[in-house]
Design a protein that fits this description.
The chain has 9 helices and 15 strands. It is α+β, with helices and mostly antiparallel strands. It has one domain: Double-stranded beta-helix (4-Layer Sandwich). The strands form 4 sheets. It has a 7-stranded mixed beta sheet with strand order 1-2-3-13-5-15-4, with helices on one face. It has a 3-stranded antiparallel beta sheet with strand order 12-6-14. The chain has a 3-stranded antiparallel beta sheet with strand order 8-7-11. The chain is globular and about 60 Å long.
Length: about 280
């Protein structure tokens, strides 16, 4: 065997912007070989979002790749693969996904935290449907020291019924009651991770800041969201068929851009378990 044949292939990536995103340019075979698992985890933690352009994972390949990234986490109903689609034939609970059109962190209401999410494009929309991301680590780090001191110990009530008001601002009482069965949780506004890094915990589940008057609470939450989603920390992914995008759910927010709900657009999601709760 030649020396060249035994040389390890290097992970090939290019940064998308200063504060968020990287494109991984290795072949599918190289990615699924497992040699890059640790490097990919580190790169994801650094960049927040990784793009594998037109890698064309089938379902089993996506499952294998997700297992390489960490401890596999099935969906709440036990599915290994979850259809992200407003097409009722592809997702019977599509009304729940209306909240995905607004900035959010997945799983803020879950008892078990989500680590990374893997999303693959199967059917493109007829129009719209890009996915936007922002880096909440970088957004926190860029805040003035005075602002960091002001928000360091703030706590925020999160609820599913707050997300309902984004896409259905005049819900029926029954709609409200249905969403309210999910309860509420109190989370820190600033998440201090085991690594020592800090990120902002925001999004459409964030209802109110504990101990603040409603107007002050709204100004804090909306102002920080505006900061975190500004161009400096922002990336928009325009989907091509076969793309896979991975994001670090512990340090990013994301949202889907509007698209024709009847066009059949389909993304398939898998995810890993988080290694620490939000606290």
């Amino acid at each position: 065997m030649s020396i060249l044949a035994t040389q390890k292939v290097a992970l090939k990536s290019t940064n998308i912007s200063k504060n968020i995103g990287a494109r991984v340019l290795n072949t599918k075979e190289e990615i699924l070989g497992g040699d890059f698992a640790e490097e990919l985890q580190e790169l994801l933690a650094q960049r927040g979002v990784l793009v594998l352009p037109q890698i064309n994972f089938n379902d089993q390949e996506q499952l294998k790749f997700t297992h390489l990234l960490g401890t596999f986490m099935p969906d709440l109903a036990g599915q290994q693969l979850y259809n992200i689609s407003l097409d009722k034939e592809k997702n019977s609970n599509r009304d729940y996904l209306k909240g995905s059109l607004f900035w959010h962190i997945d799983g803020t209401m879950n008892k078990e935290p989500i680590g990374a999410a893997v999303l693959s494009s199967k059917v493109l929309p007829t129009w719209g449907g890009n996915t936007e991301f922002c880096n909440t680590y970088a957004a926190y780090e860029a805040l003035p020291d005075a602002t960091k001191r002001e928000i360091e110990d703030l706590r925020v009530i999160h609820s599913m019924w707050n997300t309902l008001l984004y896409h259905t601002p005049e819900p029926t009482r029954q709609e409200l009651e249905d969403y309210m069965t999910k309860g509420e949780v109190e989370l820190p506004l600033v998440w201090t991770h085991k690594s020592g890094r800090k990120s902002l915990v925001l999004g459409n589940t964030a209802a109110r800041v504990v101990g603040k008057e409603p107007m002050e609470s709204a100004l804090i939450l909306h102002g920080l969201r505006e900061h975190a989603t500004s161009e400096l920390f922002h990336y928009t992914h325009e989907w091509s068929l076969g793309d896979t995008v991975i994001w670090d759910n512990t340090g990013t927010m994301h949202r889907a851009m509007p698209y024709d709900p009847d066009c059949g657009r389909l993304l398939v999601r898998t995810k890993t378990a988080g290694i620490e709760p939000i606290k």
